[in-house]
């Protein structure tokens, strides 16, 4: 997403949350909840929890990266462009955190804790791990916890459901790693200029970005197909 005309604070907040991946993650997890047999109200609760968590992840990312984004002249970063104050975004994060905790736990205690742990993993990526060779780890952990969020989920607090299958957990974690590479590839030049030495950049410097793109795309597609097959055979819950 690229934009140049200055926006107001409210729209700038919306643009700073990384709206495309935020929406994609919310729709994907909600769709998975529906396919796993969750009721309409439960799916709405899943969507609310995931959306709120994703908002915090996107906002923290833009606040933390504002100096790097400004240095490379990113035209699609409202915080770096000065359209919205970092303090305003930080306040929005605080409000969203106050919402995501009860929303997550309203899906069930175990499910809620799994979702909050996934959000925490993404925060650690934003705050530090994205600059290191361990940049893949929060994605593996975060996506690996999604099956637990779905399999333990129910309406209201308490214990619901059953543990996820190890197959679905492992495949979800592997999918997260693939998506990390695909998400990082468009920013490799900027990351190299600003010293963000994540794992995709380190590998791309050895293999070349085009080759890494093909490998990452093929890997992610294979894992996605494996998840569909596992869902139809092994299932989500043990």
TrEMBL record:
Localisation per UniProt entry: Membrane
Recorded superkingdom: Bacteria
Database matches in InterPro entries: UbiA_prenyltransferase (IPR000537)
Signal peptide: 1-24
Protein topology in the membrane: Multi-pass membrane protein
Annotated keywords: Membrane, Signal, Transmembrane, Transmembrane helix
Gene Ontology CC: membrane
Membrane-spanning ranges: 44-60, 80-103, 109-129, 136-155, 167-189, 212-236
Name of the featured protein: UbiA family prenyltransferase
Provenance organism: Nocardioides panacis
């Amino acid at each position: 997403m690229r934009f140049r005309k200055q926006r107001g604070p409210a729209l700038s907040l919306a643009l700073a949350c990384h709206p495309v991946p935020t929406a994609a993650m919310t729709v994907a997890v909600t769709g998975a909840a529906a396919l796993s047999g969750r009721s309409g109200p439960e799916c709405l609760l899943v969507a609310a929890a995931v959306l709120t968590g994703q908002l915090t992840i996107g906002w923290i990312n833009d606040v933390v990266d504002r100096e790097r984004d400004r240095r490379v002249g990113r035209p699609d970063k409202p915080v770096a462009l000065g359209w919205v104050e970092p303090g305003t975004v930080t306040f929005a994060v605080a409000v969203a955190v106050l919402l995501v905790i009860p929303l997550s736990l309203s899906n069930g205690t175990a499910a809620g804790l799994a979702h909050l742990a996934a959000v925490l993993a993404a925060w650690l990526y934003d705050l530090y791990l994205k600059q290191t060779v361990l940049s893949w780890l929060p994605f593996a952990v975060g996506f690996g916890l999604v099956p637990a969020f779905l399999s333990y989920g129910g309406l209201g607090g308490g214990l619901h459901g059953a543990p996820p299958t190890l197959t679905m957990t492992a495949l979800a974690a592997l999918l997260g790693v693939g998506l990390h590479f695909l998400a990082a590839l468009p920013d490799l030049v900027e990351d190299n200029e600003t010293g963000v030495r994540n794992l995709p950049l380190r590998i791309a410097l050895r293999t070349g970005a085009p080759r890494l793109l093909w490998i990452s795309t093929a890997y992610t597609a294979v894992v996605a197909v494996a998840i569909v097959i596992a869902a139809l055979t092994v299932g989500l819950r043990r």
